[in-house]
Design a protein that fits this description.
heterodimer, A: about 425 residues, alpha+beta, three-stranded antiparallel β-sheet, about 50% helix, about 15% strand, B: about 325 residues, mainly alpha, flat
Chain lengths: ~425, ~325
């Protein structure tokens, strides 16, 4: 074979390989479709086990004969991926693991179907859990997990300082000041000011505690003395009392969990999941000395309530199978297993009462479970508004601007309220 | 068969003509084969590259729900809204500030490193290998690395500062601290590329030019400014074209390290467009933002290419 012919053959081979590779990359079937007539359902979940142990899911196919396809998305951009899928309307996803943060917006845009609960579930699943996943009075996802932030504190440090657990903001400032020992690098409290989701949630908790709210109906209600007071409270803890670490305006909840596990933080708001970390001797230096209580308040000690649930995509082409999956996933039987694995109260009252009454658990654990359940019961759902993700971003931005001292509380609140109203007024 | 002497030039002409025709036919056949062979890949590239651009242009002139079948044509409304938005103007300025600073630092550092590398006798290969290592790191990974290194309270940078009894700045919670970390992360990722391009250009500077500068008694600085630098201009322009586009589109490191904070101080056009498009579901506005951003990058790159062309025609 001549050189030219040889090189032509090689080029042909390379070009064919390139074309084949490209077509292979573009291949792949529709995950939600029926595989050779076999009934199937495609469920979008968070990556990893997160709030749900995927090993359980095999049980669904055993019980119903419906094949289960699982698509995993990272928490950080689950919403963006689902919006893209919903917009394309391909029907590739049937069931979504829905975060309350964006479910209201998702429902408002017609991306999710409303779900009717049977009488037994309606009576057993807590009212605040149901409300948190509802929009315009209709439920859009069946809750399997509901949490409300609580205050974690160090029992040993409280005892040494001879102080009671704070119940009001004033008591909190005094206690945090007393518990701060800069020579040992211990701080009484830590604020969170990072421009991110969790710090904004914990600010909204303070806003509720001061008697304020973000949105009432379709009108913004943020521009209020309560919002200014909540921001000022955080500024005082950070800059006037110096009870919070210097870098806290850049912190989010994980930083607080780490600091407390290192024994460097006396009090901090946090989620249920932090309990398993802070009481685990392998992950925490103070496993025996952590307890929790409801957050201290100004006019109330309530916080926001946050749920995860299973919802149905309106573009699903397997709605019956999707409903069968949700019925299985939120049944008392499946939820009993989930509650046992997670060791956290279920949104089903009958199950959470059983767990709290379980005498085989330690007193420390049972106390914690009671507080978790009480916090959820007191909790307020704030996200049942169209465009909540954008509103939440505005609150994150405002908090971060104030905590990094780029704006004073009153100016920041007024500006943010105007921007939120503009978001609400959009078509 | 014998050839008559008088026929030789004619025959030669004929032979040449036949050979020319054959060569021409071969060249045409080669071109045809080349076109045919690359046609599938070229068509695929056109579809992959052109389709998203046309689609983005379409979405940018429709209402936010244009991605559904029901989108309404709104003309240039999305562009008017975008250009009238104070957020867009703020983040455009912030992006421009970041690009200018990053390019300046990267070119200065890259030039210094390339000159140092050129002057080294032994161990050049090892140093070159170490230098290219950041090029193998994905921006997302670099983002995580820098976030952990500069985290207040746990970060390794503040740990060393504490060991040296130096102040430990709250890097990520102050405006300029956070901007510095983003800049550092970009400089770490991109400077090796600048170094390698400039180093390759340095290798191409004719030895005679340097020799004659030495003979004329030019100092090291004079040699660099008047002899070496003019030879590096084409390479510098290539660096600027590539780095401008990359820096202007910065997203990953900002998203991972600061999420645009504190208080929007590190927000860039890319993060703003992402937020508007996917969290706000403003697809029309987001597409308009992407088109404007692409136009800015294209405009600057065309300008730089024109400079390059002018430069090479002068040479």
């Amino acid at each position: 074979m001549g050189r030219a012919a040889k090189s032509r053959s090689v080029s042909l081979l390379l070009a064919s390989a390139l074309t084949l590779t490209m077509s292979a990359c573009g291949g792949g079937g529709q995950p939600g479709s029926k595989v050779s007539g076999e009934a199937s359902v495609t469920v979008a979940t968070l990556s990893g086990d997160g709030f749900w142990n995927k090993a359980n899911m095999e049980d669904f196919t055993k019980k119903t004969g419906i094949k289960l396809n699982i698509l995993e998305f990272p928490h950080d951009n689950e919403y963006e991926k689902l919006v893209t899928e919903a917009v394309s309307g391909s029907g590739a996803i049937d069931v979504i693991m829905a975060d309350q943060l964006w479910l209201g917006d998702f429902a408002a845009r017609g991306f999710a179907d409303p779900i009717e609960l049977d009488d037994e579930s309606k009576a057993d699943i807590g009212a605040s859990s149901q409300e948190s996943l509802s929009f315009n009075g209709k439920l859009y996802a069946v809750p399997y997990e509901t949490q409300a932030p609580v205050l974690y504190y160090r029992t040993d440090l409280m005892k040494q300082a001879g102080i009671e657990v704070p119940k009001t903001w004033d008591e909190m400032r005094t206690a945090a000041k007393k518990l701060t020992d800069s020579s040992k690098g211990i701080f009484g409290y830590s604020i969170e000011g990072k421009q991110s989701i969790d710090p904004a949630i914990h600010f909204i908790d303070k806003l509720i505690q001061a008697g304020g709210s973000v949105v009432e109906g379709d009108k913004v209600s943020l521009d209020s003395p309560a919002a200014v007071k909540a921001l000022q409270y955080l500024l005082d803890l950070q800059y006037t009392d110096n009870s919070s670490p210097e870098g806290a305006p850049g912190f989010e909840t994980n930083d607080l969990t780490n600091l407390m596990a290192q024994g460097k933080l006396a009090m901090a708001p946090n989620w249920q999941y932090a309990w398993s970390i802070l009481t685990d001797p392998k992950q925490s230096k103070v496993p025996e000395d952590v307890a929790l209580t409801l957050e201290p308040g100004d006019v109330t000690n309530a916080t926001t309530v946050w749920s995860w649930g299973w919802g149905i995509m309106s573009s699903s082409k397997n709605k019956e199978n999707a409903r069968a999956f949700i019925n299985w996933a939120t049944s008392a039987e499946t939820m009993t297993g989930l509650q046992a694995q997670r060791g956290a109260p279920s949104p089903r009252k009958s199950l959470s009462q059983k767990l709290i009454g379980d005498t085989s658990l330690t007193e420390q654990k049972r106390q914690a479970l009671k507080v978790f359940a009480q916090a959820v019961q007191n909790g307020k759902a704030v996200t049942g508004v169209k465009s909540w993700p954008s509103i939440h971003d505005e609150i994150s931005l405002m908090l971060s601007r104030v905590m990094s001292r780029q704006a004073d509380p009153q100016t920041a609140v007024t500006t943010t309220a105007q921007r939120i109203q503009e978001i609400l007024d959009q078509k | 068969m014998t050839i008559q002497a008088s026929e030789t030039p004619r025959l030669r002409r004929r032979t040449t003509a036949v050979a020319g025709r054959r060569l021409g036919a071969m060249a045409r056949a080669n071109r045809r084969a080349g076109l045919l062979l690359t046609l599938p890949a070229s068509a695929l590239i056109v579809v992959v590259v052109a389709f998203p651009i046309v689609w983005a242009l379409r979405i940018s002139v429709y209402s936010d729900d244009a991605v559904y079948a029901t989108g309404e044509f709104v003309g240039l409304n999305n562009y008017t809204k975008l250009l009238g938005s104070s957020d867009f103007r703020t983040y455009l300025l912030q992006t421009a500030g970041f690009v200018a600073t990053a390019l300046l630092v990267e070119v200065a550092l890259g030039m210094a490193t390339a000159l140092a590398l050129h002057g080294i006798g032994r161990g050049r290969a090892v140093i070159r290998l170490i230098l290219v290592m950041p090029l193998m790191v994905a921006p997302v990974v670099s983002g995580f690395l820098f976030r952990w290194m500069f985290t207040d309270q746990f970060g390794v940078v503040n740990h060393f500062l504490a060991v040296l009894r130096l102040p430990e700045p709250p890097w990520l919670s102050t405006v300029w601290g956070a901007r510095s970390v983003i800049l550092l992360s970009d400089v770490w990722l991109a400077t090796p590329f600048v170094t390698l391009v400039l180093y390759a250009a340095l290798m191409g500077v004719p030895e005679e030019l340097l020799e004659s500068a030495r003979v004329e008694g030019a100092s090291a600085l004079q040699t660099f400014v008047y002899v070496v630098l003019p030879q590096l201009v084409p390479a510098l322009l290539v660096v600027l074209v590539f780095r401008f586009g990359d820096a202007f589109r910065v997203f990953d490191t900002v998203y991972i390290i600061t999420q645009g904070g504190p208080g929007g101080a590190t927000e860039t056009l890319s993060t703003y467009i992402y937020r508007e498009t996917f969290r706000g579901a403003h697809f029309g506005l987001g597409a308009a933002g992407a088109v404007v951003m692409a136009a800015i990058i294209l405009g600057v790159c065309v300008g730089l290419y024109a400079l390059m062309k002018k430069r090479s025609s002068e040479q």
